[in-house]
Fold this sequence. Notes:
The protein is α/β, with parallel strands linked by helices. It has helices at about 30-45, 65-75, 90-95, 135-145, and strands at about 15-20, 50-55, 85, 100, 100-105, 115-120, 160. A 5-stranded mixed β-sheet has the order 3-2-1-5-6. Residues about 1-10 have low confidence and may be disordered.
Amino acid sequence: MPLLSSKAMSLGSTAPDFEVTFICNHCPFVVHLKKDIVKLANDYTPRGLAIAAISSNSAVTYPQDGPDFMAEDARKFEYTFPYLYDETQEVARAYGAVCTPEFYLFKKNGNQPFELAYHGQFDDSRPNNNKPITGSDLRQALDCVLSDQPINFAPKPSVGCSIKWHPSENV
């Protein structure tokens, strides 16, 4: 599957568990984690996890978050997962996403619909707080989901930059 494409994508069609990450190109909180998001993807996709990143920021007000720059960013950081543009911002609204980065982990049990297993932060690291980037929160959730164990900790909300809504549609 091409990673840089304008084709529509159906999540959860190729793997029983999947992660959706709302990111963008410019946010310092995302920039801080980009290499480690790729490392996490490289660690977990061989274990059967499907990952997609979505940018829902308005390219009208933040052109650096638009598709051309997204493709450049995906090449630069060697994304091994699709990096999709939510031009209408309908996906962000449907998920209730409010910031970048923001992580959603879904699991599927048999014929039941997908269920949200985790919605939270990557870890406690932030730009300039001198805490190491480990991905510990998301990795712990992924390990639980991929081993069919319950997540036994309270997720911490993501912290980052607000999603940049289209000018006429401020939320």
